[in-house]
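Entry details:
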Amino acid sequence: MSRQQACGLIGLSRSSYYYQGDGSDDEALRKALKEKAVQKRRYGYRRLLVLLRREGWTDNHKRVFRVYQDEGLQVRRRKRKHAAKWRGEKLELPMGMNQRWSMDFVHDCLAGGRRIAVFYEKEVEQQSRLATSLLEPMLILIVGLVVGFIVAAMLLPIFELSTIIR
């Protein structure tokens, strides 16, 4: 059986059968690509290809990508920045005035569109004092409402209903 018949039998073109690859050496490209990847750790193969072309390399993107993968190169992931965690002693509760303070910036916008920021600093009292200070305004409001209803109930019989509607 001839080579032509054998190639026809398996569906291979004769030019593919006679093809001899040039066996191009990728070592120079591998070395240059590694060197660039070390210098620019956040660059992928496309950006490295641009840098190589600036130096005169004429290899296409497919070859550069193949070498990039063969060398196990990849873009380095950035490490996530974690906020520092307090691992020391727990804070003591304040036993008197002026022992612990809290600060904050309060931002607001005026009617004319102008923005203002105020530095707000406040003494942090003990939990029991804080709880009573939050309850006092609520108690005053409730007492005011009750007194208002009592006064309104006392004055209502004095006025006729018709004068209230007008």
Remarks:
- Strands lie at 101-109, 115-123.
- DSSP finds seven helices and two strands in the chain.
